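# step 3/5: fold
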Amino acid sequence: MKLGLDWPRLEHDMDDPAIAARLEGNVKLARSIGVDGTPALIIGGDLLPGAMDLGELQDAVAGARKGK
Protein backbone atom coordinates (compact mmCIF):
# COMPACT_ATOMS: atom_id res chain seq x y z
CA MET A 1 0.00 0.00 0.00
CA LYS A 2 1.35 3.40 -0.94
CA LEU A 3 0.80 6.13 1.65
CA GLY A 4 2.13 9.03 -0.37
CA LEU A 5 4.58 10.16 2.29
CA ASP A 6 7.69 12.11 1.46
CA TRP A 7 10.05 9.79 3.38
CA PRO A 8 13.19 11.92 3.07
CA ARG A 9 11.32 14.94 4.39
CA LEU A 10 9.76 12.91 7.20
CA GLU A 11 13.15 11.58 8.27
CA HIS A 12 14.62 15.09 8.10
CA ASP A 13 11.76 16.59 10.10
CA MET A 14 11.99 13.87 12.74
CA ASP A 15 15.52 15.07 13.48
CA ASP A 16 14.67 18.79 13.38
CA PRO A 17 15.18 20.40 16.83
CA ALA A 18 12.57 23.08 16.03
CA ILE A 19 9.92 20.43 15.47
CA ALA A 20 10.94 18.58 18.64
CA ALA A 21 10.70 21.86 20.58
CA ARG A 22 7.24 22.58 19.15
CA LEU A 23 6.00 19.12 20.09
CA GLU A 24 7.43 19.42 23.60
CA GLY A 25 5.76 22.81 23.99
CA ASN A 26 2.43 21.31 22.95
CA VAL A 27 2.84 18.48 25.47
CA LYS A 28 3.66 20.94 28.27
CA LEU A 29 0.65 23.09 27.42
CA ALA A 30 -1.64 20.06 27.34
CA ARG A 31 -0.39 18.84 30.72
CA SER A 32 -0.72 22.29 32.25
CA ILE A 33 -4.43 22.42 31.40
CA GLY A 34 -5.17 18.82 32.32
CA VAL A 35 -5.21 17.13 28.92
CA ASP A 36 -3.85 13.63 29.29
CA GLY A 37 -5.06 12.00 26.11
CA THR A 38 -6.71 12.48 22.78
CA PRO A 39 -9.16 13.45 21.66
CA ALA A 40 -9.76 16.41 23.94
CA LEU A 41 -11.57 19.67 23.27
CA ILE A 42 -11.87 22.93 25.14
CA ILE A 43 -15.25 24.50 24.59
CA GLY A 44 -16.34 27.58 26.49
CA GLY A 45 -13.55 27.14 29.00
CA ASP A 46 -14.46 23.52 29.77
CA LEU A 47 -12.09 20.66 29.09
CA LEU A 48 -13.98 17.82 27.43
CA PRO A 49 -11.81 14.72 27.28
CA GLY A 50 -12.63 11.77 25.09
CA ALA A 51 -14.63 11.22 21.97
CA MET A 52 -18.06 12.79 21.59
CA ASP A 53 -20.82 12.14 19.16
CA LEU A 54 -22.23 15.00 17.13
CA GLY A 55 -25.13 15.60 19.50
CA GLU A 56 -22.84 15.92 22.51
CA LEU A 57 -20.59 18.31 20.63
CA GLN A 58 -23.56 20.43 19.55
CA ASP A 59 -24.85 20.54 23.15
CA ALA A 60 -21.43 21.60 24.44
CA VAL A 61 -21.19 24.41 21.88
CA ALA A 62 -24.78 25.53 22.54
CA GLY A 63 -24.08 25.60 26.28
CA ALA A 64 -20.93 27.64 25.77
CA ARG A 65 -22.80 30.12 23.58
CA LYS A 66 -25.45 30.56 26.28
CA GLY A 67 -22.76 31.15 28.87
CA LYS A 68 -23.85 28.04 30.75
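# step 4/5: annotate
DSSP finds three helices and two strands in the chain.
# step 5/5: archive (pending)
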